[in-house]
Design goal:
5 strands, Serine Threonine Protein Phosphatase 5, Tetratricopeptide repeat, mainly alpha, about 475 residues, binds zinc ion, Zincin-like
Length: about 475
């Protein structure tokens, strides 16, 4: 399951690929969601990124900080640290990283920013200062233009030039100071990143390759092409310095484990299949390519854009090769669920839950299939599974929506209203959340846990912007 969470007001051209339920799944509290980036949720991808990051965070002494990985729904290359506890990675950065080592290098660099306490606030201030300064420079340039017109008629070029220097001088000094400060932070993050890679016996070559690619591309790239270049200026000296100290690593030539490379390629294939147009998917993964990633990409693309029967045949062939891969059963279940066959999706999703060690996002999908099957015998099971899922993913609106439906089936309208209120709250729809929670309060006995939860939602302040 690869879910695109389209935030309110931020419609995506790719919405058609997504289940209606998926759109409702918001991973962040409403207050952050409203201003946060659109996010992708996928157990397989998140699990891989966590495995990439965990040893790096441990080497950086940050393993206790509960740093989260967030996949941003953007096809451009970017990775950044925003609030000191989350590492954001564009799906484009994963797609564009040919090896695990390349993206791990970028994650190590970002961890360097985290470990160095390069606070986002400070970086924002720098960015603001730079914007202010650019505006000031533009205004200055305007003044100069006017000045030179006047002066040419007056025949007084010298004075106009002196005026220009007086305006541009201090700005230039501020600009250089900020730039050198930012460069220092980048170099520190490079050095810290290489240190973490060495401590975990990994090669810094991927980091170097990625940054090197940006320096060479920046020569040709149009302004503003890739956000990573804007947040991470890559002057040639920085990359040369990186090469200098990185290449002395004893692990410089160490290659990625082939099993990890395969998982990386499977995730890239999945992202391509979900996020790119079928023509692009088939160009990347033509029929002549018989590798597992290519077959995975084509199977997903077939279920999204082609016919269900052919997709299922392709997925079953993948299951034959890797009968213990939870994500093949997950995609089989999702294809059936979205193909309008929730009852048939249940066995595959049960298997996916079991093999994934009860991944909450997959449990939510199973809950959705159980509720959607219209079989009352499944209702208690759905409630149990969905309650367990939302306990571990308390910010996912999808889980609460399904839970509300399951309670509705049972005739437990107090719990159904409460779960609906929680879903609305997570979507950022505070008005609906308050209305539903108010109604829920009338259905619970005063002071019971359900009443208290509903009361919390009624009393919750609307998200600040
Ligand atoms: Zn950086």
């Amino acid at each position: 399951m690869l879910l695109q969470i389209v935030l309110r007001k931020k419609a995506s051209a790719l919405t058609a690929l997504v289940t209606a339920a998926a759109i409702a799944l918001l991973p962040m509290p409403a207050a952050q969601a409203q201003k946060g980036p659109p996010v992708l949720r996928d157990t397989e991808t998140e699990q891989l990124l966590r495995e990439y990051t965990r040893p790096i965070l441990r080497a950086a002494g940050l393993e206790k900080q509960n740093i989260q990985m967030v996949i941003v729904n953007e096809g451009s290359f970017n990775a950044f640290v925003a609030d000191g506890r989350r590492i954001f990675v564009n799906y484009g950065a994963i797609l564009q990283s040919e090896t695990p080592n390349q993206i791990i290098g970028v994650l190590a660099h970002e961890t360097g920013h985290l470990a160095g306490g390069h606070l986002s606030k400070l970086r924002e201030q720098l960015a603001n200062a730079q914007t202010q300064m650019i505006i000031a420079m533009l205004l200055g340039a305007g003044a100069i233009a006017v000045g030179s017109t006047r002066s040419s008629s007056a025949g007084n070029n010298g004075l106009a030039n002196a005026g220009a220097a007086a305006i541009a001088g201090p700005q230039e000094m501020i600009r250089r100071t900020l730039l050198s400060y930012q460069r220092q932070q980048e170099e520190n993050a490079d050095r810290a990143g290489v240190k973490f890679l060495t401590a975990t016996q990994q090669s810094p070559k991927g980091m170097y390759e990625t940054f090197k690619r940006f320096t060479s591309e920046s020569l040709f790239a149009a302004r503003g092409a890739d956000p990573y270049l804007q947040s991470h200026p890559m002057p040639a000296e920085r990359v040369a310095a990186l090469q200098e100290f990185a290449s002395s690593s004893p692990y410089w030539d160490k290659k990625d484990d082939p099993a990890l490379q395969l998982r990386h390629d499977m995730v890239r294939a999945k992202i391509s299949a979900f996020m790119e147009r079928p023509e692009t998917v088939y160009r990347r993964y033509p029929q002549t390519n018989d590798s597992m990633p290519a077959r995975y990409a084509r199977a997903i693309s077939t279920y999204l854009h082609g016919d269900l029967r052919s997709a299922l045949a392709q997925i079953d062939a993948l299951i034959q090769v890797q009968p213990n891969n939870p994500y093949f059963y997950e995609v089989r279940g999702q294809a059936l669920l979205e193909g309008g066959k929730p009852a048939e999706a249940i066995p595959a999703l049960r298997k996916a839950v079991q093999l994934s060690n009860s991944a909450p996002l997959i449990e939510m999908l199973l809950g959705q299939a159980l509720v959607g099957s219209d079989n009352k015998a499944y209702t208690d099971d759905a409630v149990r599974i969905l309650r367990a899922a939302v306990a571990r993913e308390p910010e996912a609106a999808l889980g609460y929506m399904q839970l509300a439906m399951a309670y509705g089936r049972k005739g437990d309208y107090a719990e159904a209203d409460l779960a609906s209120a929680q879903a609305a709250y997570l979507r950022g729809d505070n008005k609906t959340a308050r209305e539903l929670a108010t109604r829920a309060k009338t259905r619970f006995a005063v002071g019971t846990p359900g009443w208290v939860k509903a009361d919390d939602i009624v009393a919750a302040k609307p998200p600040r912007n």
